[in-house]
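Suppose a colleague, Dr. K., hands you the sequence of a protein chain of 304 amino acids and asks what its three-dimensional shape might be. Before reaching for any lab equipment, you can write down a predicted structure in token form. Begin with the sequence itself:
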Amino acid sequence: MADDIVDVVPSLGVPALGAEPGSSTLAGELGRALAGLRKRKGMTGEELGRAIGASQAKISKIERGALRPSPLDVEKIVLALDGSKDALHELVGQATELQALSSRPRLPRRGPVNQQDYADLESRATLVRDFEPITVPGLMQISEYTRRVINAFHAVDIGDHESKWAETAAKVTQRLQRQERLYDTNKTFEFILLENLLNNMYVTPGYMLAQVDRIEQIAKLPNVTVRIVPMTAQLGLPPSHGFMIFDDDVVVTESLDATVYQDRRSVEFYTHFFESYRELANADLFEVLERYKARYADMAMPKP
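The predicted structure, expressed as tokens, is then:
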């Protein structure tokens, strides 16, 4: 299910996403120490990035504590900044401790994942991978598509959606704000869609036409890749739910009872799953989209 569904399930008070207890503080301290070394050296983040073969965005995230650097990353940075042997030993040690924290097995978190959770994960990630078998990905949805899906959930859940209209409107706004990240060229987005989701009409044909056109426009962004698995493909492991992978750190499965995985084994499993469907996603994207646009345009035309 898309993230608009898990977002409307009442909160269970589960812990925050994306960090092992204690790791955020340590990453912040390490980042500040590295930033201090860089400033004392008189280098910009861009210059440091060039010196060690990394992007300025990566340097910025490390210094803000948003990205946990490997011990090798830290060694390269300290040496490039002419840091002392003591600084090298201490900061590489902190990076090693961070690496150990991040590799500890962690129980999956189950419960609702709201729009702010997704926004936080998307703000930190430089690579976002999204697999969707049923609904258009949230980052691609037009507002009416989002609204209708949420309304349908409320109609089943509480037998009424009109009483939730104000809440739904707020969620639609949050979704549109999240979509602004698609235009950040420091981030890479990769989507794999099953063709059948284009058949699933959660909105009227006119809105479906606009929705398919929106997918086409997003697919043309330089940092976005969209692939479609054709309905004729011989599928592998059944795609029972959608999921998103943030860098190589966090997986969020998208269902009524969302699950967040941060352990290495689970992240690797979903990464392999994603890659196996990437091999099947060999349809000509724009040919498929044009076909559905023509179909919905015809359906939207007034009949005599």
